[in-house]
């Protein structure tokens, strides 16, 4: 069994996240690997481009931890005074704001004022997925339902805006960067920002720049790199992605862990590492190879995921 691999991939616009999986499977097939377990850690809408993380050889089992626990950073360009059914300018406008407030007031807002307004969104933020988003209903993305004439509305859920900054305001264009919790829809966020300013707005473009500490700079690109590059360019050990403490196990305990058995805590490590109930840990074997994730409770490390090798 090959070791789990996480690869950072660049997704262009106008294709789906699953298209990235299909492309990856074809590349691996060209290398003679036709039964590779593969999945991605969080979708990007077809409208958006940027960083995606793809898990190979069982690494996709880490999805709940990478997708849910790591923040996402986006660079967005929005246009004020226009609204569309999709929240972006890939379709014709459904509403145009021609009010004097937009032209005479909003157009003259200073960068300092707009930055202050953006800070009102920092913190807890309740948001319903956009009807043209990749969120799913009955296993199918909402944007597919919407294009078939069925607008599925979901209840608002709690999200967190960690950081949001104005990059440039050149009326009517509004460029901003935000770091948000997983599942936050930037088109809906910009629509809310525009409403707060007294108008409406839709995105011109959206790029995901970071997932946690992983940036979009050194990503695998299908139009540039070869199949062999999939294992080198953008290949990131999951131990560098997940912000969990790490413990190396003696051989006997590593074997027990790989067999799915809970491992007794080490009192010295408990004291040194400050282990808390419910905290996640990355376990390594004696050769410093990561063999899985554990959760500490009842003075035992319980197996969450293990990677036999």
Characterization of this structure:
- This protein is α+β, with helices and mostly antiparallel strands and 309 residues long.
- The protein folds into three domains: 5-69 and 214-240, Pseudouridine synthase (2-Layer Sandwich), CATH 3.30.2350; 72-211, Pseudouridine synthase (2-Layer Sandwich); 244-306, Archaeosine Trna-guanine Transglycosylase, Chain: A, domain 4 (Roll), CATH 2.30.130.
- The protein contains nine helices and 19 strands.
- It has helices spanning 17-30, 63-69, 100-105, 111-119, 142-147, 186-197, 238-241, 251-258, 267-273, and strands at 5-11, 38-40, 49-56, 72-80, 82-83, 95-96, 123-127, 136-137, 140-141, 157-170, 173-180, 201-211, 214-215, 235-236, 245-248, 263-264, 280-284, 290-297, 300-306.
- The strands form four sheets. Strands 1, 2, 3, 4, 7, 10, 11, 12, 13 and 14 form a ten-stranded mixed sheet that branches. Strands 15-17-18-19-16 form a five-stranded mixed sheet. The protein has a two-stranded antiparallel sheet with strand order 5-6.
- A hairpin with a 5-residue loop joins strand 17 (280-284) and strand 18 (290-297).
- The protein is elongated and about 75 Å long.
Write down the Rg: 22 Å
User: Biggest sheet, open or closed, and with what strands and sense?
Assistant: 10 strands, mixed
Structural class of the secondary structure composition?
A: alpha+beta
CATH architecture term of the largest domain: 2-Layer Sandwich
- Low-confidence spans: pLDDT under 50, at least 5 residues? none
Strand content range: 25-35%
What name does the CATH topology of the largest domain carry? Pseudouridine synthase
Mean pLDDT: 87
Counting structural domains, the number is: 3
How would you name the CATH homologous superfamily of the largest domain? Pseudouridine synthase
Q: How would you sum up the global shape?
A: elongated
Order of helices and strands: EHEEHEEEHHEEEHEEHEEEHEHEHEEE
> What is the CATH domain class of the largest domain?
Alpha Beta
The helix tally amounts to 9
């Amino acid at each position: 069994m090959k070791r789990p691999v996480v690869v950072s991939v660049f997704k262009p616009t106008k294709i789906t996240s699953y298209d990235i999986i299909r492309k990856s499977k074809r590349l691996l097939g060209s290398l003679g690997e036709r039964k590779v377990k593969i999945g991605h850690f969080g979708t990007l809408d077809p409208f958006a481009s940027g960083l995606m993380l793809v898990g190979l050889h069982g690494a996709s089992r880490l999805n709940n931890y990478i997708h849910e626990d790591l923040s996402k950073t986006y660079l967005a360009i929005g246009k004020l005074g226009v609204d569309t059914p999709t929240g972006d300018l890939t379709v014709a406008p459904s509403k145009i704001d021609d009010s004097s407030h937009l032209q005479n007031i909003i157009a003259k807002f200073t960068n300092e004022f707009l930055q202050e307004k953006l800070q009102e969104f920092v913190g807890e933020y309740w948001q319903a997925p956009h009807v043209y988003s990749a969120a799913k209903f009955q296993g199918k993305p909402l944007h597919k339902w919407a294009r078939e004439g069925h607008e599925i509305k979901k209840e608002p859920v709690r999200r967190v805006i960690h950081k949001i900054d104005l990059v440039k305001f050149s009326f009517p264009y509004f460029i901003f960067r935000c770091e948000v919790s997983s599942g936050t829809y930037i088109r809906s966020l910009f629509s809310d920002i525009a409403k707060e300013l007294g108008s409406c707005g839709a995105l011109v473009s959206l790029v995901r720049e970071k997932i946690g500490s992983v940036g979009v700079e050194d990503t695998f690109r299908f139009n540039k790199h070869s199949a062999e590059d999939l294992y080198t360019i953008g290949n990131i050990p999951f131990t560098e992605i997940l912000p969990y403490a790490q413990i190396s196990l003696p051989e006997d305990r590593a074997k027990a862990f790989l067999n799915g058995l809970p491992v007794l805590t080490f009192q010295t490590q408990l004291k040194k590492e400050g282990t808390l109930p419910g905290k996640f840990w990355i376990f390594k074997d004696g050769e410093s190879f990561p063999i899985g994730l554990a959760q500490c409770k009842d003075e035992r490390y319980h197996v969450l995921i293990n990677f036999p090798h």
